[in-house]
Amino acid sequence: MTLIEKLENNQRLTLEDGVALYDLDLFTLGKYANQRRRALHGNKVFFNVNRHINPTNICKDICKFCAFSANRKNPNPYTMSHEEILSILDNSVKNNHITEVHVVSAHNPDAGFEWYMEIFSKIKERFPSLHVKALTAAEINFLATEYHLSFDEVIDKMIEYGVDSMPGGGAEIFDEKVREYVCKGKVSSAEWLQIHELWHKRGHESNATMLFGHVEKREHRIDHMLRLRDLQDRTNGFNAFIPLVYQRDNNYLHVDDFLSSTEILKTFAISRLMLDNIKHIKAYWATSTINLALVAQEYGADDLDGTIEAEAIQSAAGANSAKGLGLQSILELIETSGFTPVERDSLYNELKIY
Ligand code: V47
Protein backbone atom coordinates (compact mmCIF):
# COMPACT_ATOMS: atom_id res chain seq x y z
CA MET A 1 0.00 0.00 0.00
CA THR A 2 1.39 3.43 -0.85
CA LEU A 3 1.47 6.22 1.70
CA ILE A 4 -1.39 8.02 -0.05
CA GLU A 5 -3.47 4.82 -0.05
CA LYS A 6 -2.81 4.46 3.66
CA LEU A 7 -3.99 8.04 4.21
CA GLU A 8 -7.06 7.49 2.03
CA ASN A 9 -7.95 4.38 4.03
CA ASN A 10 -7.15 5.71 7.51
CA GLN A 11 -4.49 3.07 8.04
CA ARG A 12 -2.19 3.24 11.03
CA LEU A 13 1.12 4.86 10.09
CA THR A 14 4.63 3.61 10.90
CA LEU A 15 7.82 5.49 11.80
CA GLU A 16 8.92 5.37 8.14
CA ASP A 17 5.49 6.63 7.03
CA GLY A 18 5.69 9.51 9.47
CA VAL A 19 9.09 10.63 8.21
CA ALA A 20 7.92 10.27 4.58
CA LEU A 21 4.88 12.48 5.32
CA TYR A 22 7.26 15.44 5.60
CA ASP A 23 8.12 14.96 1.91
CA LEU A 24 4.52 15.54 0.85
CA ASP A 25 3.71 19.10 -0.11
CA LEU A 26 1.98 21.12 2.59
CA PHE A 27 -1.39 21.26 0.83
CA THR A 28 -1.64 17.51 0.28
CA LEU A 29 -0.63 16.85 3.87
CA GLY A 30 -3.02 19.53 5.09
CA LYS A 31 -5.89 18.04 3.12
CA TYR A 32 -5.59 14.68 4.88
CA ALA A 33 -4.96 16.19 8.32
CA ASN A 34 -7.92 18.52 7.90
CA GLN A 35 -10.16 15.65 6.82
CA ARG A 36 -9.21 13.75 9.97
CA ARG A 37 -9.68 16.85 12.11
CA ARG A 38 -13.08 17.66 10.61
CA ALA A 39 -14.27 14.06 11.01
CA LEU A 40 -13.47 14.37 14.73
CA HIS A 41 -14.43 17.96 15.49
CA GLY A 42 -16.21 19.52 12.53
CA ASN A 43 -15.77 23.28 12.45
CA LYS A 44 -15.11 23.66 16.17
CA VAL A 45 -12.06 25.31 17.67
CA PHE A 46 -11.72 24.60 21.37
CA PHE A 47 -10.29 26.93 24.00
CA ASN A 48 -10.64 27.42 27.72
CA VAL A 49 -10.61 30.32 30.11
CA ASN A 50 -7.62 29.64 32.26
CA ARG A 51 -4.74 31.12 34.14
CA HIS A 52 -1.16 29.86 33.99
CA ILE A 53 0.84 30.30 37.20
CA ASN A 54 4.55 29.51 37.53
CA PRO A 55 5.13 29.75 41.30
CA THR A 56 8.93 29.48 41.31
CA ASN A 57 11.73 29.76 38.78
CA ILE A 58 14.48 28.37 40.99
CA CYS A 59 15.59 25.09 39.51
CA LYS A 60 18.17 22.42 40.22
CA ASP A 61 17.96 21.17 36.62
CA ILE A 62 19.95 22.57 33.74
CA CYS A 63 17.90 22.24 30.56
CA LYS A 64 19.71 24.01 27.76
CA PHE A 65 16.50 25.27 26.11
CA CYS A 66 15.17 26.91 29.26
CA ALA A 67 15.21 30.68 29.69
CA PHE A 68 12.85 30.61 32.67
CA SER A 69 15.10 29.03 35.28
CA ALA A 70 16.80 31.53 37.58
CA ASN A 71 19.86 29.29 37.74
CA ARG A 72 20.43 29.91 34.05
CA LYS A 73 20.15 33.26 32.31
CA ASN A 74 17.21 34.69 34.19
CA PRO A 75 18.57 37.13 36.83
CA ASN A 76 15.37 37.37 38.89
CA PRO A 77 14.85 34.37 41.16
CA TYR A 78 11.45 34.16 42.83
CA THR A 79 9.28 31.83 44.86
CA MET A 80 5.70 32.88 45.45
CA SER A 81 4.00 32.46 48.80
CA HIS A 82 0.72 30.57 48.84
CA GLU A 83 -1.03 33.83 49.74
CA GLU A 84 0.39 35.48 46.61
CA ILE A 85 -0.86 32.63 44.45
CA LEU A 86 -4.30 32.71 46.05
CA SER A 87 -4.63 36.45 45.62
CA ILE A 88 -3.71 36.17 41.91
CA LEU A 89 -6.46 33.58 41.63
CA ASP A 90 -8.95 35.73 43.58
CA ASN A 91 -8.53 38.30 40.88
CA SER A 92 -8.71 35.83 37.97
CA VAL A 93 -11.80 34.09 39.29
CA LYS A 94 -13.58 37.37 40.07
CA ASN A 95 -12.68 39.34 36.95
CA ASN A 96 -12.10 36.72 34.28
CA HIS A 97 -14.19 33.76 35.47
CA ILE A 98 -11.43 31.25 34.86
CA THR A 99 -12.38 27.56 35.04
CA GLU A 100 -8.82 26.19 35.23
CA VAL A 101 -5.55 27.04 36.90
CA HIS A 102 -2.48 25.51 35.26
CA VAL A 103 0.39 25.41 37.73
CA VAL A 104 3.93 24.62 36.54
CA SER A 105 6.99 25.26 38.67
CA ALA A 106 10.71 24.84 38.33
CA HIS A 107 12.43 22.18 40.46
CA ASN A 108 13.24 24.15 43.58
CA PRO A 109 15.03 22.07 46.24
CA ASP A 110 14.53 24.72 48.93
CA ALA A 111 10.76 25.15 48.63
CA GLY A 112 9.81 21.93 50.41
CA PHE A 113 7.39 19.12 49.56
CA GLU A 114 4.59 20.76 51.54
CA TRP A 115 4.97 24.04 49.62
CA TYR A 116 4.49 22.15 46.36
CA MET A 117 1.44 20.20 47.60
CA GLU A 118 -0.44 22.37 50.06
CA ILE A 119 -1.18 25.07 47.52
CA PHE A 120 -3.51 22.63 45.74
CA SER A 121 -5.71 21.99 48.77
CA LYS A 122 -5.72 25.72 49.53
CA ILE A 123 -6.87 26.46 45.98
CA LYS A 124 -9.58 23.81 46.25
CA GLU A 125 -10.72 25.14 49.60
CA ARG A 126 -11.10 28.69 48.31
CA PHE A 127 -12.32 27.86 44.78
CA PRO A 128 -13.96 24.43 44.94
CA SER A 129 -15.04 24.38 41.30
CA LEU A 130 -11.71 25.48 39.81
CA HIS A 131 -9.94 22.69 37.91
CA VAL A 132 -6.35 22.27 39.09
CA LYS A 133 -4.03 21.13 36.29
CA ALA A 134 -0.64 20.77 37.89
CA LEU A 135 2.68 19.00 38.28
CA THR A 136 4.40 17.82 35.15
CA ALA A 137 6.01 14.39 35.13
CA ALA A 138 9.33 16.25 35.43
CA GLU A 139 8.17 17.89 38.68
CA ILE A 140 6.85 14.57 39.99
CA ASN A 141 10.19 12.94 39.24
CA PHE A 142 11.98 15.82 40.97
CA LEU A 143 9.76 15.54 44.08
CA ALA A 144 10.15 11.75 44.22
CA THR A 145 13.95 11.99 43.97
CA GLU A 146 14.34 14.92 46.33
CA TYR A 147 12.09 13.52 49.06
CA HIS A 148 12.86 9.79 48.60
CA LEU A 149 9.35 8.86 47.56
CA SER A 150 8.07 6.50 44.89
CA PHE A 151 6.13 7.90 41.93
CA ASP A 152 3.05 6.18 43.37
CA GLU A 153 3.50 7.99 46.67
CA VAL A 154 3.81 11.41 44.99
CA ILE A 155 0.77 10.68 42.81
CA ASP A 156 -1.27 9.61 45.84
CA LYS A 157 -0.39 12.93 47.48
CA MET A 158 -1.40 14.88 44.37
CA ILE A 159 -4.79 13.23 44.44
CA GLU A 160 -5.13 13.74 48.19
CA TYR A 161 -4.32 17.46 47.84
CA GLY A 162 -6.71 18.05 44.97
CA VAL A 163 -4.86 17.93 41.63
CA ASP A 164 -7.45 17.16 38.94
CA SER A 165 -5.33 16.54 35.85
CA MET A 166 -1.70 16.58 34.78
CA PRO A 167 -0.25 18.93 32.16
CA GLY A 168 1.93 17.56 29.40
CA GLY A 169 5.17 19.38 30.19
CA GLY A 170 8.62 17.89 30.58
CA ALA A 171 8.32 15.48 27.65
CA GLU A 172 10.65 17.55 25.42
CA ILE A 173 11.94 14.90 22.97
CA PHE A 174 12.01 11.26 24.00
CA ASP A 175 14.99 10.19 21.88
CA GLU A 176 17.60 9.43 24.54
CA LYS A 177 20.58 10.97 22.74
CA VAL A 178 18.85 14.27 21.97
CA ARG A 179 17.41 14.32 25.46
CA GLU A 180 20.84 13.81 27.02
CA TYR A 181 22.04 16.82 25.03
CA VAL A 182 19.13 19.21 25.67
CA CYS A 183 18.09 18.33 29.24
CA LYS A 184 20.59 15.98 30.81
CA GLY A 185 19.63 14.78 34.29
CA LYS A 186 15.94 15.62 34.05
CA VAL A 187 13.16 12.99 34.09
CA SER A 188 14.04 10.27 31.55
CA SER A 189 11.71 9.40 28.69
CA ALA A 190 10.85 6.04 30.26
CA GLU A 191 10.11 7.73 33.59
CA TRP A 192 7.95 10.42 31.92
CA LEU A 193 5.86 7.72 30.25
CA GLN A 194 5.72 5.60 33.41
CA ILE A 195 4.44 8.52 35.50
CA HIS A 196 1.65 9.28 33.02
CA GLU A 197 0.79 5.58 32.91
CA LEU A 198 0.47 5.45 36.70
CA TRP A 199 -1.70 8.58 36.63
CA HIS A 200 -3.94 7.16 33.90
CA LYS A 201 -4.25 3.85 35.74
CA ARG A 202 -5.82 5.71 38.63
CA GLY A 203 -8.51 6.93 36.25
CA HIS A 204 -7.07 10.42 35.71
CA GLU A 205 -6.36 12.28 32.51
CA SER A 206 -3.35 14.20 31.22
CA ASN A 207 -1.80 15.88 28.20
CA ALA A 208 1.43 15.25 26.32
CA THR A 209 3.80 17.83 24.84
CA MET A 210 6.72 17.70 22.43
CA LEU A 211 9.32 20.45 22.22
CA PHE A 212 10.46 20.73 18.61
CA GLY A 213 12.46 23.02 16.37
CA HIS A 214 15.80 22.83 18.19
CA VAL A 215 18.42 20.14 17.51
CA GLU A 216 16.08 17.20 16.93
CA LYS A 217 15.52 15.60 13.53
CA ARG A 218 12.21 14.78 11.94
CA GLU A 219 12.50 11.09 12.84
CA HIS A 220 12.88 12.03 16.52
CA ARG A 221 9.53 13.83 16.39
CA ILE A 222 7.84 10.80 14.85
CA ASP A 223 9.49 8.46 17.36
CA HIS A 224 8.18 10.75 20.13
CA MET A 225 4.64 10.56 18.76
CA LEU A 226 4.83 6.77 18.45
CA ARG A 227 5.94 6.31 22.06
CA LEU A 228 2.87 8.33 23.09
CA ARG A 229 0.61 6.38 20.74
CA ASP A 230 1.80 3.10 22.28
CA LEU A 231 1.02 4.29 25.79
CA GLN A 232 -2.33 5.68 24.71
CA ASP A 233 -3.24 2.27 23.23
CA ARG A 234 -2.80 0.85 26.71
CA THR A 235 -4.36 3.58 28.89
CA ASN A 236 -6.41 6.00 26.78
CA GLY A 237 -5.59 8.72 29.31
CA PHE A 238 -4.21 11.47 27.07
CA ASN A 239 -6.65 14.22 26.10
CA ALA A 240 -4.40 16.31 23.92
CA PHE A 241 -1.07 16.32 22.16
CA ILE A 242 0.71 19.70 22.20
CA PRO A 243 3.63 20.33 19.85
CA LEU A 244 5.53 23.23 21.48
CA VAL A 245 7.55 25.33 19.06
CA TYR A 246 11.00 25.99 20.50
CA GLN A 247 11.68 29.67 21.41
CA ARG A 248 15.34 30.50 21.11
CA ASP A 249 16.11 33.62 23.17
CA ASN A 250 18.08 33.80 26.44
CA ASN A 251 19.11 30.18 26.72
CA TYR A 252 22.09 27.86 26.26
CA LEU A 253 20.91 25.91 23.24
CA HIS A 254 22.36 27.88 20.42
CA VAL A 255 20.06 27.27 17.48
CA ASP A 256 20.47 29.66 14.57
CA ASP A 257 17.77 28.39 12.23
CA PHE A 258 14.23 29.01 13.35
CA LEU A 259 11.72 26.59 11.86
CA SER A 260 9.76 27.74 8.83
CA SER A 261 6.00 28.07 9.21
CA THR A 262 5.70 25.28 6.64
CA GLU A 263 7.68 22.90 8.85
CA ILE A 264 5.61 23.87 11.88
CA LEU A 265 2.31 23.34 10.05
CA LYS A 266 3.56 20.03 8.65
CA THR A 267 4.38 18.91 12.18
CA PHE A 268 0.86 19.75 13.38
CA ALA A 269 -0.63 17.92 10.39
CA ILE A 270 1.59 14.87 10.86
CA SER A 271 0.80 14.67 14.56
CA ARG A 272 -2.92 14.63 13.69
CA LEU A 273 -2.30 11.76 11.26
CA MET A 274 0.11 9.72 13.41
CA LEU A 275 -1.82 10.05 16.67
CA ASP A 276 -4.98 8.29 15.62
CA ASN A 277 -5.86 7.57 19.26
CA ILE A 278 -5.43 11.04 20.83
CA LYS A 279 -8.52 13.13 20.30
CA HIS A 280 -7.18 16.67 20.45
CA ILE A 281 -4.18 18.42 18.92
CA LYS A 282 -3.48 21.68 20.68
CA ALA A 283 -1.75 24.55 18.89
CA TYR A 284 -0.59 26.30 22.04
CA TRP A 285 -0.64 29.87 20.79
CA ALA A 286 2.06 31.04 23.18
CA THR A 287 4.69 29.12 21.23
CA SER A 288 3.29 29.01 17.72
CA THR A 289 2.05 32.64 17.74
CA ILE A 290 -1.69 33.20 17.62
CA ASN A 291 -1.62 33.72 13.84
CA LEU A 292 -0.01 30.40 13.08
CA ALA A 293 -2.10 28.67 15.75
CA LEU A 294 -5.19 29.79 13.85
CA VAL A 295 -3.83 28.58 10.50
CA ALA A 296 -2.91 25.30 12.23
CA GLN A 297 -6.64 24.75 12.81
CA GLU A 298 -6.80 23.94 9.09
CA TYR A 299 -3.81 21.61 9.40
CA GLY A 300 -4.95 19.16 12.03
CA ALA A 301 -5.14 21.19 15.24
CA ASP A 302 -8.50 21.79 16.97
CA ASP A 303 -7.52 23.62 20.16
CA LEU A 304 -5.63 26.78 21.18
CA ASP A 305 -5.21 26.30 24.96
CA GLY A 306 -6.69 29.33 26.62
CA THR A 307 -6.65 32.90 27.73
CA ILE A 308 -3.66 32.02 30.06
CA GLU A 309 -3.56 35.63 31.45
CA ALA A 310 0.14 35.46 32.19
CA GLU A 311 2.88 33.17 31.07
CA ALA A 312 6.51 33.02 32.15
CA ILE A 313 8.22 30.01 30.54
CA GLN A 314 7.88 30.69 26.84
CA SER A 315 7.90 34.47 27.16
CA ALA A 316 11.29 34.25 28.93
CA ALA A 317 12.61 32.60 25.75
CA GLY A 318 11.16 35.21 23.42
CA ALA A 319 7.48 34.36 22.91
CA ASN A 320 5.04 37.26 22.88
CA SER A 321 2.73 35.65 25.42
CA ALA A 322 3.42 37.26 28.78
CA LYS A 323 0.04 38.99 28.92
CA GLY A 324 -2.34 36.29 27.72
CA LEU A 325 -5.33 36.87 25.46
CA GLY A 326 -8.71 38.29 26.42
CA LEU A 327 -11.82 36.16 25.98
CA GLN A 328 -13.26 38.64 23.48
CA SER A 329 -10.08 38.54 21.40
CA ILE A 330 -9.99 34.74 21.31
CA LEU A 331 -13.63 34.64 20.20
CA GLU A 332 -13.09 37.21 17.47
CA LEU A 333 -9.92 35.55 16.21
CA ILE A 334 -11.57 32.13 15.96
CA GLU A 335 -14.69 33.52 14.31
CA THR A 336 -12.87 35.66 11.77
CA SER A 337 -10.82 32.59 10.83
CA GLY A 338 -14.08 30.89 9.86
CA PHE A 339 -14.38 28.51 12.80
CA THR A 340 -16.90 28.02 15.60
CA PRO A 341 -15.43 28.91 19.02
CA VAL A 342 -16.20 26.34 21.70
CA GLU A 343 -15.34 27.09 25.28
CA ARG A 344 -14.43 23.80 26.93
CA ASP A 345 -13.51 22.71 30.42
CA SER A 346 -10.13 21.14 31.16
CA LEU A 347 -11.33 17.65 30.17
CA TYR A 348 -12.90 18.87 26.90
CA ASN A 349 -16.52 18.89 28.01
CA GLU A 350 -18.18 21.65 25.98
CA LEU A 351 -19.28 24.58 28.15
CA LYS A 352 -20.47 27.03 25.52
CA ILE A 353 -20.67 27.02 21.73
CA TYR A 354 -20.51 30.56 20.38
O1 V47 B 1 7.98 21.21 29.28
C1 V47 B 1 10.67 25.39 28.00
C2 V47 B 1 8.57 24.13 27.40
C3 V47 B 1 7.00 23.36 28.78
C4 V47 B 1 10.98 26.47 26.17
O2 V47 B 1 -0.59 20.38 29.21
C5 V47 B 1 9.78 25.79 26.06
O3 V47 B 1 -2.12 21.72 28.46
C6 V47 B 1 9.44 26.61 23.95
O4 V47 B 1 4.14 21.94 29.14
N1 V47 B 1 10.63 27.26 23.97
C7 V47 B 1 6.03 23.74 29.87
N2 V47 B 1 9.00 25.86 24.96
C8 V47 B 1 4.69 24.22 29.28
C9 V47 B 1 3.76 23.07 29.01
C10 V47 B 1 2.37 23.31 28.56
C11 V47 B 1 2.00 24.49 27.98
C12 V47 B 1 0.66 24.67 27.61
C13 V47 B 1 -0.28 23.71 27.83
C14 V47 B 1 0.11 22.51 28.43
C15 V47 B 1 -0.93 21.47 28.72
C16 V47 B 1 1.44 22.29 28.79
O5 V47 B 1 7.54 24.54 28.24
C17 V47 B 1 8.21 22.57 29.15
C18 V47 B 1 9.11 22.84 27.97
O6 V47 B 1 8.96 21.85 26.99
N3 V47 B 1 9.63 25.11 27.21
N4 V47 B 1 11.51 26.23 27.38
C19 V47 B 1 11.43 27.24 25.05
N5 V47 B 1 12.60 27.87 25.05
UniProtKB/TrEMBL annotation:
Pathway linked to the protein: Quinol/quinone metabolism; menaquinone biosynthesis
- Functional description taken from the UniProt entry: Radical SAM enzyme that catalyzes the addition of the adenosyl radical to the double bond of 3-[(1-carboxyvinyl)oxy]benzoate, leading to aminodeoxyfutalosine (AFL), a key intermediate in the formation of menaquinone (MK, vitamin K2) from chorismate.
For this UniProt record, give its keywords in alphabetical order, as a comma-separated list. 4Fe-4S, Iron, Iron-sulfur, Menaquinone biosynthesis, Metal-binding, S-adenosyl-L-methionine, Transferase
Cited HAMAP family: MqnE
PANTHER family linked: AMINODEOXYFUTALOSINE SYNTHASE (PTHR43076:SF7), FO SYNTHASE (COFH) (PTHR43076)
Which reaction(s) are listed as its catalytic activity?
3-[(1-carboxyvinyl)-oxy]benzoate + S-adenosyl-L-methionine + H2O = 6-amino-6-deoxyfutalosine + hydrogencarbonate + L-methionine + H(+)
Tell me a GO biological process for this protein: menaquinone biosynthetic process
Q: Which InterPro entries match?
A: Aldolase_TIM (IPR013785), CofH/MnqC-like_C (IPR045567), Elp3/MiaA/NifB-like_rSAM (IPR006638), F420 (IPR034405), FO_synthase_su2 (IPR020050), MqnE (IPR022432), rSAM (IPR007197), rSAM_sf (IPR058240)
Give GO terms: molecular function aspect only: 4 iron, 4 sulfur cluster binding; 7,8-didemethyl-8-hydroxy-5-deazariboflavin synthase activity; aminodeoxyfutalosine synthase activity; iron ion binding
Protein family: Belongs to the radical SAM superfamily. MqnE family.
**Cofactor binding comment, as recorded:** Binds 1 [4Fe-4S] cluster. The cluster is coordinated with 3 cysteines and an exchangeable S-adenosyl-L-methionine.
Respond yes or no to whether keyword 4Fe-4S is given for this record: yes
Q: What is this protein called?
A: Aminodeoxyfutalosine synthase
Q: Does the keyword Transmembrane helix apply?
A: no
Species annotation: Sulfurospirillum multivorans (strain DM 12446 / JCM 15788 / NBRC 109480)
Query: So what EC number does this one have?
Result: 2.5.1.120
Enumerate the residues binding [4Fe-4S] cluster.
59, 63, 66
Which cofactor does the UniProt annotation name? [4Fe-4S] cluster
On the tree of life, the source organism's domain of life is Bacteria
